[in-house]
Amino acid sequence: MAIEFSERVRRIPVYPAADAYAVPDDVAMMASNETPDPPLPQVMDAITRALPTLNRYPDPSNSRLRQALSGRYGVPAQRIAIGNGSVDILMAAGEALLEPGAELVYAWPSFSVYPHLSAASGATEIRVPLDAEERHDLPAMAREITVATRLVIVCNPNNPTSTALPLDDIAAFVADVPRHVAVILDEAYCEFSTLDDPDASLDLLTRHPNLVLLRTFSKVYGLCGLRVGFALCGSEDFVRAVNQVRQPFFCNSAAQAAATEALRHQDAVAERVERAVIARVELEEELRAMGIEPAESQANFAWFDLPVPEGEEPGEIEAAVVRGLAERGVIVRAGGALGKAGALRVTYGTPAQNRRFLDALRDLI
Ligand SMILES: Cc1ncc(COP(=O)(O)O)c(C=O)c1O
């Protein structure tokens, strides 16, 4: 007889992980919105220096890292939460805020972890479709907020569609949300956006104690293998609640050391952003030359609908192109698993990887 699992486990959707981990080195990994550059030597040295202390538990209060973040972002350390990746903070927020009868509002398609929060807690989710330009429809989201709403998530720039809204729109939306409703502004990709200064949203925290800016060392800081995320919060209450529902040692010593060191190298961050913006322009131009109209990206990846010949199914075209690209050594994400069949999400790689992807796609369509 098979093990009988809880109703909760039957409800939780399985995360659509990319299946490209046992691939040869020469494959272009363009599926997970990672940075193509290896960690900085100074970051690797910081990890090495942390190794002799691995017989000890990590600092449960992540004090050095929180101090360093406080120095960099000007938010008091008591209002900074750390996570084993920012997903850890998201899931903890779901546990701390949601329960049956409560409501969660988010846009769709958006980050595939958000549905987990409602499924795990038994809360009701309200998915608000993106607008015609595949951006958050904030007025429509505002209309969905009721007395039962506990959490609203806005992903800016949005994964998987790469689009972003200007901060003025976000600020007006946050100002309209009642104070007892938590707003998580998921800014995993904010450094790549040229719409606003990525630090400009920090100012909102001074006016909105219910706001949380969710950020990560996984993307522009290039440390996703170590799993470190952080939340800059409008109040200490959020930090306390997400810490209360988690195990005490959620961020390991090597990760704390690496993230603290990485913060010192803002010049490297700026260089990565510059390379991403160059890749963005190149990919967009070349995709348009192939007759493909990508969404207006403000992130480190492109999102676009594949051309679908008359009488054919978008899902089948998508599967054939993803397979064809993989055969040519390029791994990308199929849109179907992310909320839109017939679309592709392609992370910018090195210039050589970008060229390889473009040549392979041209071959296939
Ligand atoms: C929108 C968004 N938020 C959060 C994350 C989670 O990042 P991590 O848990 O690695 O910090 C991702 C990762 O892809 C993402 O796309």
Number of strands: 12
> Structural class per helix/strand content?
alpha/beta
Q: Give the radius of gyration.
A: 20 Å
Counting copies of identical and different chains, the oligomeric state is: single chain
Number of helices: 13
Low-confidence segments, given as residue ranges, are: none
Mean pLDDT: 96
Order of helices and strands: HEHHEHEHEHEHEHEEHHHEHEEEH
Q: Helicity level, as a percent range? A: 25-40%
Q: What gap, in angstroms, lies between the N and C termini?
A: 48 Å
Strand fraction equals 15-25%
**Mass-distribution shape:** globular
For the report, how would you describe the main beta sheet? 7 strands, mixed
Strand order of the largest sheet: 2-8-7-6-5-3-4
- Associated small molecules: pyridoxal-5'-phosphate
What report would you give on this structure?
By secondary structure, the chain is an alpha/beta fold. The protein has 13 helices and twelve strands. The strands form three sheets. The chain has a seven-stranded mixed beta sheet with strand order 2-8-7-6-5-3-4, with helices on both faces. Strands 9-12-11 form a three-stranded antiparallel beta sheet. It is globular. The protein starts with 6 loop residues before the first helix and ends with a helix. Pyridoxal-5'-phosphate binds next to helix 4.
